[in-house]
Design goal:
Helix content: 40-55%
Shape: globular
CATH class of the largest domain: Mainly Alpha
Strand order of the largest sheet: 4-3-6-5
Number of domains: 3
Strand content: 15-25%
CATH topology of the largest domain: Triger factor/SurA peptide-binding fold
Length: 465
């Protein structure tokens, strides 16, 4: 997506953000393997975090202090259980418990120091943004917020701690972007050099692949009859895909995996970033071909090969979304809460057929897209700030989302179309820019995280158990 092909929008993502959610233990990947009936949550603390898995003490105790702020044994145990569950379901070997506890404690110390820095610098996340994050999680689980709360309570989870986890996640993202964005700039000369190097090395470069999947989840302790029925469901999806049915529609009909509104795509990546099962299953499948169903710890997978290319260079096609929005900027005369209420009223009027989205955008939106009825043009992944893109990706074409609070104001978003588009030379350069920016961000983050950790006073108490 070239910058000249869309209206100027201040909420466009200023850089490709590397979301290093150490606190969340790989939430998105973990969510993909949860059996139905259990919630897909980016992070939480159980009411009794290590109940039957670890020998319990009668009382919690402090394992470390970071600048006078304690980290408790129960916090480490809760993180350990989430991590072990995720690694087991992904087929990854779980390290010895004492080694895992040591690694996770160090991660928690790094996070705690960064959160403290964020508070010192006045970085804030409003309650409205937390409400929006909770709403997004509820929507991904196809529940209302009240239903989400009740389900969490029934599963022994603490809802207030869940909100705290979400707040911390957003705070970590903001402080990292603020500190590292300037160090992630990429020049035109760096793009030219990268392209020359990739072209010179292309003969021996490994391939990257983009897969889409239909996942039919198998619950834990499924009976033989349940297993047979779920396998038959996956087989039906595979047969219809091979007969030429629209894979996107099959994803919506059959898949239990998160992100099915995004066509089930898992993204262009190297083989080392896919489960080995997926690579083994699709290695001899041509582009456009179907593989499966194959069984994993999560369930039955039907896989479609969307694209293959040499590693390091942009692909020939890219998935794009066309959306429009209405942006209200809170200020002296309009509070954030009032902006949310106004956009919620707009949504009701649009749903009832009493108002037109484009007309409301022209009359009320406070950004450059207003003259075009809020139309933002076609955009590829990474074009917008994360909170805007997350909701956009969750919407089906024609659907209007709930009012969304971002750092630029409050949005009402509607997705109008999705497509796979050819990538022009200019767009390929922008993709390379994003790749280099992400690499720079990762490198800068490593150094910065060590510096923040080094400035923190850390006192180790009793080892976690």
């Amino acid at each position: 997506m070239t910058k000249s092909s869309i209206p100027f929008c201040p909420f466009l993502r200023p850089s490709v953000t590397v979301v290093l959610l150490l606190a969340m233990s790989g939430g998105a990947a973990w969510a993909q393997t949860r059996p139905p009936g259990q919630l897909r949550l980016p992070g939480y603390t159980s009411a009794s975090p290590a109940g039957s898995a670890i020998g319990q003490r009668q009382a919690d105790y402090i394992v470390a202090v970071v600048n006078s702020e304690p980290i408790t044994n129960n916090e480490v145990r809760a993180r350990m259980l989430r991590t072990e569950q995720q690694m087991a379901q992904q087929g990854t070997q779980v390290p010895p418990r004492n080694e895992l506890a040591r690694l996770l404690l160090e991660r928690m110390i790094v996070e705690r120091a960064q959160l403290q820095l964020a508070r010192e610098q006045g970085v804030q996340v409003s309650d409205t943004m937390i409400d929006e994050a909770v709403l997004n999680v509820a929507r991904q689980n196809q529940l209302s917020v009240e239903e989400l709360r009740n389900r969490m309570t029934s599963q022994g989870l603490v809802f207030t701690q869940f909100r705290t986890d979400l707040r911390n996640e957003l705070l970590l993202n903001r402080i990292r972007e603020r500190e590292l964005d300037a160090q992630s700039k990429v020049s035109e000369q760096e793009i030219d050099q990268f392209i020359r190097e990739q072209e010179a090395d292309s003969a021996g470069a490994p391939q990257e692949v983009n897969l889409a999947q239909i996942l039919v989840v198998v619950p834990e302790n499924a009976s033989a009859d349940q297993l047979a029925a779920l396998q038959a469901r996956a087989q039906l999806a595979a047969e219809r895909a091979r007969s030429g049915a629209d894979f996107t529609k099959l994803v919506a009909e059959f898949s239990n995996a998160p992100g099915r509104n995004a066509d089930g795509q898992m993204g262009l990546r190297g083989a080392d970033r896919y489960p080995q099962l997926f690579i083994d299953t699709t290695q001899n499948v041509p582009v456009g071909g179907i593989a499966g169903p194959v069984r994993s710890g999560a369930g039955f997978h039907v896989l479609k090969v969307l694209e293959r290319k040499r590693a390091g260079m942009p692909g020939s096609t890219v998935a794009e979304t066309r959306a429009r929005h209405i942006l209200l900027r809170p200020g002296v005369q309009l509070t954030e809460q009032a902006a949310v209420a106004r956009l919620a009223d707009y949504k009701k009027r649009i749903a009832a057929g009493q108002a037109d989205f484009a007309a409301l955008a022209r009359e009320n939106s406070q950004d450059g897209s207003a003259k075009d009825g809020g139309d933002l043009g076609w955009a590829a992944a990474g074009q917008y700030v994360p909170e805007f893109e997350a909701q956009m990706n969750s919407l089906a074409p024609g659907q209007v989302g709930e009012p969304l609070v971002s750092r630029f104001g409050v949005h009402l978003i509607q997705v109008t179309e999705r497509r796979s588009a050819k990538v022009s030379t200019r767009e390929q350069r922008e993709i390379v820019r994003g790749t280099l920016r992400e690499k720079k961000f990762e490198e800068a983050y490593s150094t910065w995280a060590q510096e923040v950790r080094g400035r923190a006073y850390v006192e180790f108490r009793e080892p976690p158990q």
